Protein 1
Amino acid sequence: MTPTFPYLTTLVLLPAGAGIVAALVPRSLGERTQRLAVEAVGLAGTLATLALAIAIIIGFHAGDGGYTMVSRHSWVPTLGISWHLGVDGISVFLVLMAAVLFPLALLGARIRHNQRSFVAWVLLLEAGCMGSFVALDLVVFFLFFELTLVPVYFIIAGWGHERRNYAAMKFFVYTFAASAFMLVAIVAVAVIHQQQTGVLTFDLVKLSHTHLSLTAQVLLFLGFTAAFAVKAPIFPFHTWSPDAYAQSPTTGSVVLAAVMAKLGTYGIIRFDLTLFPRAVVDLAPVLLTLGVVGILYGAIVACAQRDLKRLVAYSSLAHLGFIVLGTFALTTEAMTGGVLQMVNHGLVTAALFLLIGWIYSRRGTWQITGLHGLQRPAPILAGVFTVVMLASIGLPGLNGFVGEFLVLAGTFITHRWWAIVATVGVVLSALYLLWAFQQVFHGKATEADASTPDLTWREGLVVAPLVALIVFLGVYPKPVLDRITPSVERLVAHVDRATGTTQPVPGPSHRLAVDPAVKHRSAAVAATATAMNGQSTASSSQATGSNGHAAVVSSSTTGAGFRRFP
Amino acid sequence: MIPDLATAVDQTLKLPHIDYLSILPELILLGGALLVLLVSSLRRRMMTPGAAAGWTVLISGAALIAALVQWHEVSAHGPKVEVAGAVAYDGFSVLVNVLVSSALILTALVAEGWLQRERMAGPELHVLMMVSAMGAMVMGAADDLIVVFLGLEILSISLYVLAAFNTRRAESGEAALKYFVLGGFSSAVFLYGIALVYGATGTTNLPQIANFLAQNVILHNGLLLAGIALLLAGFGFKVAAVPFHLWTPDVYQGSPTPVTGFMAAVAKVGGFAALLRVFVSSFGLLRADWQPAVWVLAALTLLAGALMALVQRDIKRMLAYSSINHAGFVLLGLEAATSRGVSSSLYYLFVYTFMVIGAFAVVGVVGGQGDSRHDIDNYRGLGSKRPWLAASLAVLLMAQAGIPFTTGFLAKLEVISAAVAAHSTVLAVVAMLSAGIAAFFYLRVIILMYVPTQPDDGAVALPETDDLGLPRFAMAGALPGTLDASAHAAGLEGAGVTADSSAGASSDAEAQDADVVPAEVVPGDVTPADVVPVGVAIAIGLCLAVTVVFGIAPGPVVDFAHKATLLF
């Protein structure tokens, strides 16, 4: 499986290298030349990364849903740290999404001073995000996960708005402190593994075979989830995010909300579910509740916002709730929807923050009440905003619908009431977004409103790919779902196997007509379970477990709710 | 030949056999110190600060090479006990030797610039530092409580003098006096601890204490426990563990900045080396008795260090509290009381030494003449005035905060691993939370250095009300300097405000303005034209290189610490 070309290592090192190059552009070139050179380096770096990400997705074969393009080198053997990178169907789209968003974020918002450091920080941030998405070694993941804080901190503090220092500090200290728990938990997993096997390693694949008692799992799960919940952010841990989103420069908001938020949700899927399946199953109701509360709370608070940027920040919180819901429903549909929703949320939020940034650059305000009737002077802006907003609301035919529908449908199977309450959030999101749209784009334009210029060609060029992707994923998500599903099935099977629960398989009436990718899935779960036997990662004891499990799956095709082994 | 002579004397006086290689670095430093002292008294003119620093670098370089030879020897032949059981010659002691000689080289480079700037003739500074460093080496190698005490006193007495070295500043003398009084008190406590341990076990030799404890079960061990407690208090003072830390901020603040860096690095290395050896190897069997005490000590040290640093406005006091926080992390390794714990503590000390010397070197440069500019407001806008200096400090502070891809992160990872492996998970969580708190004050300095003074990038003029702006104006009047200067400064600030809000005057303009006026009034004002002395630049560069290179490729240092512990 190991390709000759180290795609993933390059994916991480390329933006980092470009960042260093950008930082070294000499000041002696003169302000204008330096600025152009820096922008060129930034654009070249991010576009090259995008090209690499596209190459990765072209070369990516879903296969059995395991990790591909693995590159694995010993790094600090004494400490058991290895440079272990790999992608599967879950991470590959996040990589692609990040790679798409970074050049757009750089192009979409021009900053007026210190371009050199700004571009360098953005590139370093891209390296950090990419590294987090592809790392399969816990310490390497943590390194990149923490590394992302530094550029974001400087981006907010250096180029943010009025209360930037406060926001930057709050962001950093919140996330840094939360990561403290994760670091201890990472070390604890490795230590327990070492006590069991005598091998000190932080390798995710090896650690996933560690036998942990339920108490240990719950504690460690809480340690990991503390960091992820703050990073995402999940409901009660979100207080840093409206400040950070609102005070960031547009590029920062885009990256924070669209890419970095996914580090948290991705971390939950990748690490919590892999390492602590029993704790996940036991605590799923709690997390589901937090997700639903987040959906409702975000939506309600968003309704009360008078500031467009904060409104989008809270709507982002609400949409993240859906991802949490999809993850902890622990069904293939819901999780596939959750992963897709991560990508959708990234695209939509990025587009929203870019559009709001452009409105701000024209008018100098985010106050909804200060803007009226922009539709007439800026029809293209209004049109694009409409599409993006409708995608955010979840209109069928746009990407938000596919993700949210899968999440809700998948959740409904196992956790009916949560799904029902969450659906209210969809309605609320229509409420506040349409209200804001009405205020800003309809109504009577004042003089200032009437002279608001429309999108420039450059801005149009930036937002066009986003709109195209939003529509494409809404109309034809099959290629994406086809690649996500095997990995998700594998993960769900892993959780089922470890906990002795079975994923309830919906009867024919529950079959999801909208989703071609999951048509074959009722058989696929059983197939995956047996296919696991052949995996190099499956130990013999687990193999017997999955044999038994396959039998249970085949016998429980209609049940709703979990069935456990006695 | 020396061995022959030794045998000859041995027969008549029953002197112990001495393998001089085992104490070679100590001998080099002592001999070098005496040589420099001699030359400087006979030929005062020969010993310019530059020459003294050169000598010191050469001598400590020789000590470093000797230590590396020792490492080779120890790796090949395993640990030994030398000088009649007084000195341990093992990986642990060699690592301390390597570390102390490196610290000495760096401090000598930094001190040279300081002496030049303060126009002080100071071969004595270098001599005292060499002697003090030798004390730290003795502590690292001591295999007998009396020898530990000997090393402790050599280390401390030189440090008392060093703290008072800047005779022109009252704070320096005050710091020295405080350090001396409290240090003397703690030495007495320590000595009494030795006496009690001797009373309980009948020996002061560390391996013999361990043997005694292994062979005898002491039913009423109150005496021994009291002795251990007193030893812990004595060590706690030296390594600045809470609640024995009260001297630290005052002394760190008052001492000349290079001395502060030296103190923070070498005194801590020496203290921790002896602490680890005494507690883990001699009292290892009683760990159930002292671990809870160390647990409490570590938790207090971690939290108090981080919390108290939050409220400091003086950068040296802040770094003092941050060094207390670091001491807490090293204590984690001791609390684990395993070989992994010892190795992680050693690794932490190793990387800490470079981070702290580098940070204090930058602080010394920014401090300007007379060591007067240590308020954190002096760091405002450093990023645009002195980009390299600011970047260095930013990296070193981030390493101290434990940001990935620096040695600081791996050091924290190591001690945390050791603590978790020893089932001290709660303490590990406390430690990482304290690191989260600590990140706040490190970042506060960084944010100040890079706070852009021009308005934002928005196309429309923003209402620029920097939330850190208010304290700045308040501080303008409170800055040290005469009324004249503050009046001028206040006027300039006023002008600055209008310039800021209207045209977005760059920080450079403001800085230049500030330079023009108080140049005579505040003698040591940092100006963009100030040159960082070559020695200081080299030292900072070395510290940075160690911090970053070993942060990305930590293999060698980690292995060094591991092997040093295996050969313990």
Note: The first helix of chain B runs from residue 2 to 13.
Protein 2
Amino acid sequence: MSETISAAWLIARKDLAIEFRTRSAFFSAVVFALLGLVIFYYAWDPTAVSVTDLAPGVLWVIFTFSGLLGLHRSFGIEAADHAIDGLLASPVSRHAIFLGKAIANLIFVAAVQMIAIPALVLFYNLPLGDVVGPLIAIALLAAIGLVVVGTLFSAMVVNTRLAELLLPMLALPFFVPIVIAATQATAKLLSGRPVSEADAWLKLLVAFDIVFVAACTLAYPFTVED
Amino acid sequence: MSLSSSTTAIAPGPVVEVVALTRAFGPRKAVAGVTFSLGAGDCLALFGPNGAGKTTLLRVLAGLLKPSSGSARVSGIALPAGADVRSKVGLISHHTMLYDALSPRENVSFAARLYSVPHVSTRVEDSLRRMSMLERADTPVRALSRGMQQRVSIARAMVHSPQLVLADEPYSGLDDSGARALTALLQELRAVGTAIIIVTHNLAQGLSLATHAAVMQSGRFVRYDRRSEVDVTSYSTTYREALNSGE
């Protein structure tokens, strides 16, 4: 088990080093997130919809779609000059490869969130108060679910001609339960309700994460067997 | 690179033992009933036209594809197998399998860590020096020529001192000095007991390293000789005749 974790971390570090050098996906995702915030802001009529009703939806729409940019790149860097063959021919387990990719994607999505959440708070003048901690927990739980599902589908579509189109088509239906739970929990917190009222949605996120981390990790080796 | 001191212990018996190996893609058999074995220090030069099944055979032995039928053993372990076999195999391909945003040193270090190689920095330096890439070790791979990338790819494949080297057109993109360095490296590996399967279209280059030579067509070995039984000067005729007889 510790070998799997250390191999996964090695692969994640490699992916992050590549992203740090190129910064292409990260900048694209951040620009997309900020543009999304701006567009929603100017389309918003504050007299018709309150900020606490609008913000959760805006937040999770931009996280979902900006995250897809990083997820697509995840296995894309392995496709160039068949680097994936070097990984698959090495003694590390297929599970470690998947977990490494997922960890790198989680850090990527978390980094985008670290910029997008403060930007959302500034743009919409959100009264965060003492909900910062629970909001971070929701963001993290939802990110785990989005990332594991997206990483699996990224591996599945990477060698197809329409990978950029197929990834959102396949992944988005699986994102729906996570986005609904995350949006509902965020809405409860931003409208000043106690955290206990968001409990059911948080439990759904935790359950989704447990099931899909296990299922996607176990399923990944089948995507590389032909 | 001190191969004699760094190569892992060679298991007694054949390093590679392939019996009636078949690999099919749907109805098409890319490898159809291939049988051969190689001992420590043996080198099989594998010739054949494009689409003969050479790369598929190497991919099965590398653990990247599962055999459809028949059996293949590497160091006595039946394929498909896990980490225990993959750690003994070094794969060189005409695809470099490198990350172009990383430097040669980072690429080879990453591979060394995947294979849990001890003394990573020393081994990485040795591997890169062996392929004359030490001076460009910190240049991003994308800024290197195709031949230099191939040198780095070879250094990456050798960093864990494999017992079996699978080399699929390893000379592609290499200049004369790179080709000489690769030949010297492969000869040195053979001398310390590493088995090698090399796929090449250059008959003379392949035969210069080989202890065995095979011609593959339509997934089958249409000719298999010991190197000592082969007349190098007339092998191109032998090769053509083998292909004609296999049609």
Note: Chain B has one domain: 3-246.
